[in-house]
Design goal:
Elements lengths: L20 H13 L15 E5 L2 E4 L4 E4 L2 H4 L8 H13 L11 H13 L4 E7 L2 H16 L3 E5 L8 H6 L3 H4 L10 E4 L27 H18 L6 E6 L15 H8 L6 E5 L23 E4 L10 E6 H4 L19 H16 L2 H22 L3 E7 L2 E6 L4 H10 L2 E2 L1 E3 L5 E4 L7 H18 L1
Parallel strand pairs: 3-13, 5-6, 5-7, 7-8, 8-9
Antiparallel strand pairs: 1-2, 2-3, 4-10, 9-10, 11-12, 12-15, 14-15
Length: about 450
């Protein structure tokens, strides 16, 4: 059946059963050829995407959904942004692959210059990768070279990826346990601080720091910082003294937890850039999602290394570890064989996509729009917290918004919303938190429709 291409501003429009027969048929085929660990397959899940634009997604059965996941945060400027799609097509026709670290594509230089221009402080020397986990690995290697110290402090609830070193600093036991004997032993996980209601500070910036009137949990902050200090001291007596503190400015998969405003500055004070480096994982929070280009700008904290990914291209795999000149000088000068590289490093199609994506975010004011739309979502979610008994609290920053329930009902809300044409995901380890992280280009009509569906789904589980 012929269908009109999506415009991107469509409202939820279930056309039949969800999942429908085409998705069920694809699931049957997938079950035969993909590792059973990758995709959850059941009678009620998943749907198979065939088209996406803006904040709209169509599945194999013709059902149209509003996406409030932004494709794991990738589609900050919307799915299939016209400028990004055109840049990919042009670059693929002209030069689809370069010779990485030997004869690089010229466009890589332009992207690295742009990354230096948008990152705060004196960040500006970059190692590119593909997946976000690769950039985390590059950052950790940089810290080891710069400090000569191998130990790492990471945080409870953290998610940094599932490759070797990235898995070692990721906290969730369900990811770690099967491979525990292979993981680096020099990682120490300490508590991530919480607030009674995220971001009571910054009342002068309500679009970027909406609050539900709570107060900062000073005890939680101090407990976290004391644990950091104890970990640094204890590690000095081992073969893995601390050389890096790796932290998400907002816990993403850990449950959209926004820490007190003084948290990152306090960590910065503990990292001198010589014995200990501060690494900020902004793979989820960066590139405009929180109402700033990077979340660390809300609290005027510049790390030694900033890791970016996801929304960097809005489409194809690309990540970056962006460091200060001082940190990155730890790497030896190449004499023809780089000690950290990959076949697709600086792929020209990915670089073209990133330049177009960054241009679209800037030209369309999507950094500012993230703050404004986030405030609109927060107004609605706070109303839920006040009127729906099962909703414990609303929290978040910019377009990283969430509600936490009193019991683990987020998966059931997700499936009910799916049947009504809205794509949404749980976050956190206990099934109690539902993330609302739409593309910045979502229209007000789409947002209102999606929030109506979510409210109905939440009330049905209350």
């Amino acid at each position: 059946m012929s269908r009109q291409p999506l415009r991107g501003d469509e409202l939820p429009a279930p056309a039949g059963a969800i999942p429908g027969p085409a998705s069920h048929a694809l699931a049957t085929r997938l079950r035969r050829v993909e590792s059973r660990n990758i995709t959850q397959l059941s009678e009620t899940f998943p749907v198979f995407w065939t088209e996406a634009r803006g904040a709209a997604v169509r599945d194999a059965d013709g059902n149209v959904f509003v996406d409030v996941t932004a494709g794991f945060g990738v589609a900050h400027a919307g799915h299939s942004h016209p400028a990004v799609a055109a840049a990919i097509a042009r670059q693929a026709a002209q030069l689809a692959h370069g010779l990485g670290d030997v004869h690089p594509p010229a466009i890589k230089v332009a992207l690295l210059e742009q990354l230096a221009a948008i990152t705060p402080g004196d960040l500006g020397v970059t190692i590119l990768g593909s997946a976000g986990a690769e950039a985390v690995e590059a950052a950790l290697k940089t810290a080891r070279l710069r400090t000569g110290r191998s130990g790492i402090i990471a945080f409870e609830g953290a998610y940094h990826g599932l490759t070797g070193a990235a898995l070692a600093v990721t906290h969730r036991s369900d990811f770690r346990q099967p491979f525990a004997s292979q993981l680096f032993a020099g990682v120490r996980h300490v508590p991530y601080p919480a607030t009674d209601a995220d971001r009571a500070e910054h009342a002068d910036d309500p679009a970027s720091h909406p609050t539900n009137g709570g107060t900062v949990n000073d005890a939680s902050l101090q407990d976290s910082l004391d644990a950091v200090d104890r970990a640094i001291e204890a590690a000095e007596r081992t073969s893995h003294p601390i050389g890096a503190i790796l932290v998400e400015p907002v816990l993403g998969r850990g449950g959209i937890v926004v820490p007190p405003a003084s948290f990152l500055p306090e960590l910065r004070e503990r990292c001198d850039g010589q014995r200990i480096l501060l690494i900020l994982d902004e793979i989820y929070t960066g590139v405009g999602r929180t109402g700033r280009w990077f979340a660390c700008e809300h609290v005027s904290t510049v790390p030694d290394i900033l890791v970016a990914g996801k929304a960097l291209t809005g489409s194809v795999p690309l990540s970056a570890a962006i460091g200060t000149h001082d940190a990155m000088e730890a790497w030896p000068t190449s004499t023809g064989e780089a000690i950290h590289t990959s076949t697709f490093l600086g792929n020209p199609v990915a670089c073209a996509a990133a330049l177009a994506q960054l241009g679209a975010i800037e030209n369309e004011g999507l950094v500012e729009r993230a703050g404004e739309t986030g405030a609109a979502i927060r107004e609605r979610t706070e109303h839920w917290a006040q009127t729906i008994p099962g909703v414990e609290r609303a929290h978040g920053i910019g377009l990283l918004q969430a509600v936490t329930f009193r019991r683990p009902s987020a998966p059931a809300v997700m499936e009910e919303a799916l049947r009504r044409g809205v794509l949404v995901l749980p976050e956190g380890p206990d099934g109690r938190t539902l993330a609302i992280t739409p593309p910045a280009v979502i229209t007000r009509a789409q947002l209102d429709a999606a929030l109506e569906v979510l409210e109905h789904a939440i009330r049905s589980q209350a």
